[in-house]
Design a protein that fits this description.
The complex is a heterodimer of chains A (about 260) and B (about 270). Chain A is α/β, with parallel strands linked by helices and about 260 residues long. Chain A has nine helices and ten strands. Chain A has a six-stranded mixed sheet with strand order 6-7-8-3-9-10, sandwiched between helices. With about 270 residues, chain B is mainly α. Chain B has one domain: MetI-like fold, CATH 1.10.3720.10. In chain B, helix 3 crosses helix 13. Chain B is globular, with a radius of gyration of 23 Å. The chains are: A alpha/beta (about 260), B mainly alpha (about 270). Chains A and B meet through strand 6, helix 3 and helix 5 of A and helix 8 and helix 9 of B.
């Protein structure tokens, strides 16, 4: 983990709000490197443009200025090399779990037997083997989000972008999902950009935590989290002095301390 | 409590009265279609009589009426197909377009419907005679497109607005192109809307009378116009008129039953949030 996978330089992104169709500057002058195979969390105050950053990297939004590179190549449009896990799951209601997971492979024209074999593998990783033939409406929120993760991973993306994926599930489920995500991630080691408004979540999951300023977002500080993965369970972290110190530091940064702004 | 009960009672009474008023002509039509010619003209009207299928049998054996019935079916189905093929992708474009574009297109589409049909008839008659579309089923389909297209645009735009943006974005991330995501993700999500819209278009084309009367002369005559032919110089064959009325009503009735299923069923459940 040393070469940058995604390079963001002086990025500026405008956001057009859906209802009133007004333009806002969501991000301005943001520079950040996402390293190969790292788990980078982005934390910042609500509405600071974190989701906009995901949209820009995914290719849904065109930057107004600055550059956005994946492996040195400019990002121009959405593509299967950047998987996105949405807060709203985005599963197709009329397809079973396994069909949802295999959807991206199907769109690429992979034969059924092969794509189901691959999908099955990712269902095993995400502990969903039992639910393979169920429909999304039969699943709990936590399970749906695991399906969404499996679906994204099945496409073997180079980068997984996660946009507050656990924000809609209850607190207990969220903790379980966070622990599971670490376990799943250790098996794939895909580069992850994880956006969250929860400071605890960011410190718990990330190798590094990038803290953004209020809108328009720019990088405030990067905090490295050197707690070994093996120790990262909530049972241990709740009382771990290192974790608590880091959490408090990030919290302070998010709430406005740290630099002059 | 008592007052509320009384209010509910009054409302029910009004509803029943309204239903009777609505259904009376239909019941009358049904009775008439089952009477012989003599019974049909009896005064006071016979309420108890032995139902006969003679009028229906006459219709079924009438080649010209059966051909008009087939015409109706072909024209209505063709109109639905044309309107959907043209209107559905257009509605998607409107739904995803800019606000200004959307307002202009939708309002202008509606204005074509607001103008009374009589305005178009004479020019279209002259035009159709010149280009050879007079008395053709395709000619009628094209005219009906004018009326059904705004319907498709308005309803389908609303349905496409409801399709969550994330599902589309997820499809793009999965590597779907614009056509793939349209056919595999967006269209299935808008399926209830597609069904309802198609049926509304069908009913319109099926029931249309004015344009068919003027623009169809012999070969392309649909069923509603064929009824008029039972009102001839020698007298009106009321039994046949009634029977063909019931005949024409049946498909619409069937489709209306299907519509309910489509409209009630919300396919969106589970797509977004819990």
């Amino acid at each position: 983990m040393s070469t940058p996978k995604i390079t963001i330089r002086d990025l500026a992104v405008e956001y057009v709000s859906e209802e009133r169709r007004e333009r806002h500057i969501a991000i301005e002058g943001l520079s950040l490197d996402i390293l190969e195979n790292e788990f980078l969390c982005v934390a910042g105050p609500s509405g600071c443009g974190k989701s906009t950053l995901i949209s820009a990297i995914a290719g849904f939004l065109k930057p107004r200025a600055g550059s956005l590179l994946l492996d040195g190549q400019p990002i121009l449009a959405p593509g299967a090399d950047r998987g996105v896990v949405f807060q709203e799951y985005a599963l197709l209601p009329w397809r079973t779990v396994i069909e949802n997971v295999a959807l991206g492979l199907k769109l690429r024209g992979m034969p059924k037997a092969e794509r189901h074999r691959i999908a099955q593998r990712f269902l095993t990783i995400t502990n969903l083997t039992e639910a393979a033939e169920k429909y999304p409406h039969e699943l709990s929120g936590g399970m749906k989000q695991r399906v969404a993760v499996a679906r994204t991973l099945a496409n073997t993306p180079q980068v997984m972008l996660m946009d507050e994926p656990f924000a809609a599930v209850d607190a207990q489920t969220r903790m379980t999902l966070q622990e599971e995500l670490i376990r799943i991630w250790e098996q794939s080691r895909v580069t992850v950009l994880f956006v969250t408004h929860s400071v605890e979540e960011a410190v718990f999951l990330g190798d590094r935590v990038a803290v953004l300023s209020p809108r328009p977002a720019r990088l405030k500080e990067i905090v490295a989290v050197n707690i070994p993965r093996a120790r990262r369970t909530w049972e241990q972290m709740n009382t771990d002095p290192e974790f608590i110190a880091l959490r408090d530091r990030v919290l302070q940064l998010v709430r406005g301390g740290g630099n002059g702004s | 409590m008592v007052v509320r009960k009384r209010v509910i009672l009054v409302i029910y009474a009004l509803l029943v009265a309204l239903m009777l008023i609505t259904l009376f002509p239909l019941v009358w039509l049904l009775l008439l279609s089952l009477k012989s010619e003599l019974e049909a003209f009896a005064y006071p009207p016979l309420l108890v009589f032995k139902p006969k299928l003679v009028n229906f049998l006459a219709l079924l054996s009438s080649e010209s009426f059966m051909r008009s019935f087939a015409n109706s079916f072909i024209i209505a189905t063709g109109t639905v197909a044309l309107a959907m093929v043209v209107g559905v992708p257009a509605a998607y474009g409107i739904s995803r377009g800019t606000r200004r574009f959307r307002q202009h297109v939708l309002v202008w589409a509606l204005i074509t419907r607001m103008a009374p049909g009589m305005i178009y008839i004479i020019p279209f008659f002259v035009l159709y005679v010149k280009v050879g579309l007079i008395d053709t089923r395709f000619g009628l389909m094209l005219i009906y497109l004018i009326f059904t297209l705004p319907l498709v645009l308005w309803t389908m735009t609303m349905f496409f607005d409801e399709v969550p943006k994330t599902l589309e974005e997820a499809a793009k991330v999965d590597g779907a192109g614009i056509f793939q995501s349209f056919f595999r993700v967006i269209l299935p999500l808008a399926a209830p809307g597609l069904g309802a819209t198609a049926i509304l278009c069908f009913i319109f084309a099926w029931n249309e009378f004015l344009f068919a009367l003027i623009l169809a002369r012999r070969d392309a005559i649909p069923a509603p116009v064929a009824i008029v032919n039972f009102m001839a110089f020698e007298g009106t064959e009321w039994g046949k008129v009634a029977a063909s009325g019931i005949f024409i009503l049946l498909p619409v009735l069937l489709f209306s039953l299907v519509i309910r299923k489509y409209l009630v069923k919300g396919l969106m459940g589970g797509a977004i949030k819990g």
